[in-house]
Amino acid sequence: MKQVIVIYGAPSDRAHFDRHYEATHVPLVRKMPHLLDFHYSKGPVQSSAPDPAPHLVATMSYGSEADLAASLESPEGKAAVADVANFASGGVTILTVTI
């Protein structure tokens, strides 16, 4: 199983980030094929790293590397990836792990 962990840095406009993430980005992600599970943090993120703490953390699970690749290459996956530039002004770190 593959898990993608997306860590969003503190945006310049938190209210805009939150509105866009909930109203636009989440529906795009949920349409991605082969997606087994999707969760994202609610409220402040605590981190052992120096400030600033991440604003939001999301996790997506896929059954295999092939499923993840197919999901990202799909029109729905490309739309979700392209949308990140519309709200993630604080930067994004993406981790992909095998579980």
Topology:
Elements: E1 2-8, H1 14-30, E2 35-40, E3 56-62, H2 65-73, H3 75-83, E4 92-98
Antiparallel strand pairs: 1-3, 1-4, 2-3
Helix pairs in contact: 1-3, 2-3
Keywords:
alpha+beta, Alpha-Beta Plaits, 3 helices, 4 strands
Summarize the biggest pleated sheet.
4 strands, antiparallel
Compute the number of strand runs. 4
As a whole number of angstroms, the C-alpha radius of gyration is: 13 Å
Question: What is the global morphology?
Answer: globular
**Could you state the order of secondary-structure elements as H and E?**
EHEEHHE
| CATH classification, class level | Alpha Beta
| Total discrete domains | 1
What would you say the CATH architecture is? 2-Layer Sandwich
Average pLDDT taken over every residue: 96
- In terms of DSSP E residues, the strand content is 25-35%
What is the third-level CATH name, the topology? Alpha-Beta Plaits
Count of helical stretches:
3
- Spatial strand sequence of the major β-sheet: 2-3-1-4
End-to-end distance: 5 Å
Q: What report would you give on this structure?
A:
The chain is α+β, with helices and mostly antiparallel strands. It has one domain (2-98): Alpha-Beta Plaits, CATH 3.30.70. It contains 3 helices and 4 strands; from the N terminus they run βαββααβ. It has helices at 14-30, 65-73, 75-83; strands at 2-8, 35-40, 56-62, 92-98. It has a 4-stranded antiparallel sheet. Helix 1 runs antiparallel to helix 3 and helix 2 (65-73) crosses helix 3. It is globular and about 35 Å long. The model has no long low-confidence stretch (mean pLDDT 96).
